[in-house]
Amino acid sequence: MVGRGVLKECLDEPRVEDVLVVGRRQSGEQNEKLREVVHHDFFDYSPLSTEFEDRDTCFFCLAARGRSPDS
Fold first, then answer.
1. pTM for this one?
2. Would strands 19-23 and 34-38 be described as parallel, antiparallel, or unpaired?
3. Is residue 24 part of a domain?
């Protein structure tokens, strides 16, 4: 929920040149600025280290999996 909002704002912002999303699955968004990487081990980002080399900003929006809104 928060992550989708951050993604929308980044894609809409003209000063943001490109957006890299690292997630458990594809977002379904289509945008020329957007590149997505599916990644499953959120305790180990070492396989993605080169992806982060030239990034200026990071938003970490990780949701809890498997929880219902009532819990």
1. 0.77
2. parallel
3. yes
Q: pLDDT 10s per residue in the chain (71 long)?
A: 788 899 999 999 999 999 999 998 998 999 999 999 999 998 999 999 999 998 999 998 877 665 555 54
What's the chain's length in residues? 71
Residue type, 53: E
Task: Report the distance separating Cα 10 and Cα 33, nearest Å.
Answer: 9
Q: Residue 14: give the domain boundaries.
A: 2-52
CA 38, CA 27: separation in Å to the nearest integer? 10
Residue 64: inside a domain: no
**Spatial CB neighbours of 16, under 8 Å, sequence gap ≥ 6:** 10, 33
